[in-house]
């Protein structure tokens, strides 16, 4: 099972400024230049192009709820056994690749082998990026493999077929608007991890195969200058130049979705350093509910202050309890994390009943719409 992580302290730096007018002028100049160099995403949060009430209505109109049902074209392809190294796993890989090639996204396959309790197994992380040359990435992620059980075929509808479908839906619905942003400095990147599940028992070596491999690879892979080349096909550099950055350093924030799809989900923020992103999810959830754009069951749980719903609000919505998941290898390397996982796992977790019958399609649509608005707002998409 996934384990408990201890929170790590924030690191703060302080700048001592003398009274020298000359030095003060220099510092002010450097500060001004630094402000000019903030991420595109941060600038857009100050002056967002999206999302007005009209924009939100437009984003909601992009929904095709039938695609997110358990027989729908977006969710159904993931509702099969897909243990790493099996035919079903490869079938899902091929589905992801063909889907994003059709959308004209850059598709990267991170193929590798690793030793498991059942011998050496093949794995393949699928990374898709709208604009691989953008120097900054908003990352949404989920794992597409399912857990091995000897006595039954495990579907893993919440774990994590639904999160994968939510990511695909975000890409499909926003793709026409993302096409207009191909020269932006920030782009959307989706990571579908293989090998999250333990084959036998959760441990440092029997779990997180894909995320451990990709985080280590990206930590040692450098890109040069402002027009960074795509991450795939690049050789790691042992001695980077002064203006080089690792691929990990291109990530603005890494948002991981897991164990979603049942209607009774409540999620607490477990990473205070990304509280501003969490707050946006809470605000978006509230805006959508007051506009009657979310399902009735979750709208009924949200009060006039925005408390309730899927995403818990403010300090009452913070939990120091951290769950081991695919974000861990990235967090250990300093990547900002938002972990979207219910601290109280669904009752069907790692049971044969985690199948299509466990899923409430309206809940799937709710999460798809919330993240559609979040991405549009973060990237400042013009609708």
Describe the structure.
33% of the residues lie in helices and 15% in strands. The protein has 383 residues and is α/β, with parallel strands linked by helices. It is globular and about 55 Å long. The relative contact order is 0.18. The protein contains 10 helices and 10 strands. The strands form 3 sheets. A 6-stranded mixed β-sheet has the order 2-3-5-4-8-10, with helices on both faces. A two-stranded antiparallel sheet has the order 1-9. Strands 6-7 form a two-stranded antiparallel sheet.
Secondary-structure topology with pairs:
Elements: E1 4-5, H1 21-36, H2 40-46, H3 53-61, H4 87-102, E2 106-116, E3 119-129, E4 136-143, H5 157-179, E5 186-193, H6 209-219, E6 222-224, E7 244-246, E8 251-257, H7 275-290, H8 296-299, E9 322-323, H9 328-331, E10 337-340, H10 361-379
Parallel strand pairs: 4-5, 4-8, 8-10
Antiparallel strand pairs: 1-9, 2-3, 3-5, 6-7
Helix pairs in contact: 5-10, 7-10
Domain Peptidase M28: 125-373
Keywords: Acyltransferase, Hydrolase, Metal-binding, Protease, Transferase, Zinc
Protein name: Peptide hydrolase
